[in-house]
Amino acid sequence: MNAVDIAPLPFCDGIVYGEGPRWHGGRLWFTDGLAGRVYSADENGLLEVEAEAERASGLGWLADGTLVVSALFAARIYHIDAQGRIAATYDVGELAWSTNDLLIAADGRAYVDLYQATEDGLVGAIGLLEPCGNVRVVASGLAVPNGLGLLPDGSTLVVSETQGSRLLAFPAAPDGSLGPPRVFADLGSERHPDGLCVDAEGAVWVGCYSTGEFLRVLDGGAVTHRVPIEKGWAVAPALGGSDGRTLYLVVDDTTEEDLLRGQSTGWILQARVDVPGAGSP
After folding, report:
1. Which of 16, 155, 178, 201 satisfies CB 3.0 to 4.6 Å to 34 for a cystine?
2. Residue 279 within any structural domain of the chain
C-alpha cells in the first residue's frame, strides 16, 4: 500500500516546546513544558493560557473536571482546578526519574509513562494512575514508552515504544491492568514514534520525530497516510475540530541537547482527514 501524502497548513505558533495535544470541550488543549504552561486554542488558533505547571507534558481530565497534568524531566503529577490553580502535586519519584505522556479514559482508567535512568539509557514502564494520585506499575521493561491511546473498543491500549521503533498493543482489563503486549506496528529502525492518537476505524496517527513525519498506521503496520513536515520534530497529533476530522500536529524545532538546556521553538500545524477521531487520547 502506497501512503497518501497530505500537505499541512499553519494553525498556531509562539510556543516553546509543545506536547500532549487533546481535543476537549470544543478546544485544542496542549502543554508547553519549557514555558511551564497549559494552553487551549479555538479553531482559529487563538491561544489562551489555562494553567501554569512546571515541566507540563501529558493531559487528561477526571470525571469531576479536574485537569491532570504529568511532568517531563520530573516525576510529578498535578491536579489543577477549574480556575487553573494547582490543587495538588503528587511525587512519584519512588517509581520513576520522570513521567511523560498521560491518558485518562472516559471510564476513569488512567495511564502514565514512567522513566528510569540507567547506565545504558532510559528504560520505561506504564503506571496505572488512581484519582487520588497513587500509581502502580502495570507494564515494565519497555524501550521508552511514549504516546498512549485506547482503540475504539476500549479494551486495547496502544503505546509508542520510542526506542523500540514500534507501536505495542496491550490488552486492557476494565480494572486497568494490562496483559502481555503484541506488536501493533513495526515502523522500522529509522522511525522513533512519539505522541499518538486513535481514529474511529482503529488506525493510529503517530508522530515520528526523527524522520519528520506523521503517519496513519493500521494494525499490522501498513501506513495509509503521511504528513511530512519541512523542519523540526514531528512530536504529537490530535484529532478534533467540530467534526473530529481536523488533524492537529505539534512540531518542535530542537535537538536532544537543546531540549535538556530548555531551548526549542514550537508550533502547531493542521490538516483535514477523512476518518474522525475516536476520542483517545
Report:
1. 16
2. no
